[in-house]
Amino acid sequence: MASIITDCFLIWQTLVVRAVSALLFISVLALFQAGEAAAEENRGILVINSNTAVKNYELAQAAFMANSAGIKAKINLGDSSVDIDTVRKQIRQVNPDAIYAIGSKAYLLAHGIAEDRKIIFSSVLNWQRLPISENSYGISNELSSGMQLMTYRYLFPKLKKIGLIYSEKFNREWLSGAVETAADVGMEIVSMPIAESAELTPALEKLLPEVDVLWLISDPIVLADQESALEIFSQSAAMKKPVIAYAEIFSTLGATLVISADIATMGLQAASLSKDLLEHKKILQPVADPAGSYIMLNMKKVKEYGLDLNSEALGSVNQIIE
């Protein structure tokens, strides 16, 4: 009898140990899963906007937020009450995994005080001039050369020689691809490199008489400041040479054609990029080309310069300036 009782006790003891072990395992598993859930919950994005009063910046933010999950906070640098200490404090409080910076001011601030975080930028002119780190990602504000050239050719089939001033430091490789693309669509790029902004005026004087049109590209040496842009449009107008540009702002200076990136699409692309980063996916192209475009045509300049316009191509134009 004592032997039977002992055996039963041992069996009961074994069952209790197994039950306790199972409970411990379940508890540890629950804690692990809770930890994973908490980590997932803590993942998020801080949006820093250079100024939400700027229409394009506001559009980019709206598109980004409509297609993103986990937005933890927003900062508007256009608010006079916001300074660098306020931003630094909010970054510490929010502790985001990534920051979406809209505009140069937002990117430079984020890069300066939160370089250890992943930073996604958009709506930045001449992004090549920015300080870029291994945590920097973004959507270029400029469309691919191939897309622009095919649009030029479609609208103005008789414009063959395209003048282009560039700096080798920022656009040597880009120019090589553009030259090949131009040849493929029956056009020729006549380029002139400059090493500093002081060389811009003599370069324009030499280049403009040799070409049909001037192609203004994103280059921080060519477009060093506002005076540089004014000089480009002043000389081009004096010689009655149309200017083809890449940003809406140039339409106010007299650009004949502007092919710019579609802002809402850029915000959508930035949202997709941030999602991939948060999911630790491999990013093959840290700075991607815009996927959509917006085309503005200045009919005043078309008539003033006597340009031959393909009327059948007008359906591809988003806005006509009369």
Structure, described:
The radius of gyration is 28 Å and the shape is elongated. The chain has about 325 residues and is of the alpha/beta class. The longest helix has about 40 residues, at about 1-40. The strands form 2 sheets. The protein has a 7-stranded mixed β-sheet, with helices on both faces. A 6-stranded parallel β-sheet has the order 2-1-3-4-5-11, sandwiched between helices. It has 10 helices and 13 strands. It has helices spanning about 1-40, 55-65, 85-95, 105-115, 145-155, 170-185, 200-205, 225-240, 265-280, 300-305; strands at about 45-50, 70-75, 100, 120, 135-140, 160-165, 190-195, 215, 245, 255-260, 285-290, 295-300, 320.
Q: What labels would you give this structure?
A:
seven-stranded mixed β-sheet; six-stranded parallel β-sheet; 13 strands; 18% strand
Concise synopsis of the structure shown:
By secondary structure, the protein is α/β, with parallel strands linked by helices. The protein has 10 helices and 13 strands. The protein has a 7-stranded mixed sheet with strand order 7-6-8-9-10-12-13, with helices on both faces.
SSE blueprint and pairings:
Layout (H helix, E strand, L loop, with lengths): L1 H41 L2 E5 L5 H12 L4 E6 L7 H11 L3 E5 L1 H10 L4 E5 L13 E4 L5 H11 L5 E6 L1 H17 L3 E6 L6 H8 L5 E3 L10 H13 L4 E3 L11 E5 L1 H16 L8 E2 L4 E6 H6 L14 E3 L1
Parallel strand pairs: 1-2, 1-3, 3-4, 4-5, 5-11, 6-7, 6-8, 8-9, 9-10, 12-13
Antiparallel strand pairs: 10-12
Structural class: alpha/beta
Query: Mean pLDDT, rounded to whole units?
Result: 86
Gap between N and C termini, in Å?
109 Å
Radius of gyration: 28 Å
Q: Profile the largest sheet.
A: 7 strands, mixed
* Helical stretch tally: 10
SSE order, one letter for each helix or strand = HEHEHEHEEHEHEHEHEEHEEHE
Shape summary? elongated
Poorly predicted spans: 1-17, 19-42
- Give me the count of strands: 13
Main-sheet strand order equals 7-6-8-9-10-12-13
